[in-house]
Amino acid sequence: MRRWPTVWIALGLAALPLLTSACGLQRSGAGPSVPSVPSVDAAADAEGRRHATEATASAAGRTASADPCALLSPSARSSAGLTKVGTPTTVGDARACDYTEPGGYGVTITIDERAGLADLRVAPRRVRDLRIGQREALLVADERADDGTCAVLLAMGESGSVHVDVSSADFRDTARACARATTVAELIEPELK
């Protein structure tokens, strides 16, 4: 059996990283060689995630730039029983629009760019899943308290939402407040691009 001189073995080991990198392989100290170029499936998956992220960001950007008072056209306001034009306001940092029917009820539409539906599930017994048009939604009300308040929250991507809050002037009839909140949510949902 022929023995290789130690110098040749050392040179061969020293050249191994150069040879493997020239073949498109990387060698880590612990484990087998792996391709340095992503596989076709990984590249397609990354491309799909990039397109989904761009679409979500684009949709959120269009809604984020929307004026909450412009989400209800005059005819939609009439359909919701609102006779007064909305007043721009803010709820925390979020842009909102208040509609007040003196002696009747109030409706507030808020565009919240920081809290998605998953963030808003706070009291499970008061939250019910809905579908409004093409969007997931939540109905939030304490029907046992019958305090005349109700909210419908529409999904806006994963990290945003549009809220429709209704409260009655006499703080009674939660069922009616929820019917009105649902109606307004159905009217504005097509406007949320």
Automatic annotation (TrEMBL):
Q: Which InterPro entries match?
A: DUF3558
Q: Name one Pfam family in it.
A: DUF3558
Q: Tell me yes or no: is RNA-binding among this UniProt entry's keywords.
A: no
Q: Where is this region: Disordered?
A: 27-61
What is the top-level taxon of the source organism? Bacteria
UniProt biased composition (Low complexity): 28-45
Q: Which UniProt keywords apply?
A: Signal
Annotated signal sequence range: 1-22
Asked if the record carries the keyword Signal, the reply is yes
Query: What is this protein's name?
Result: DUF3558 domain-containing protein
Species annotation:
Saccharomonospora amisosensis
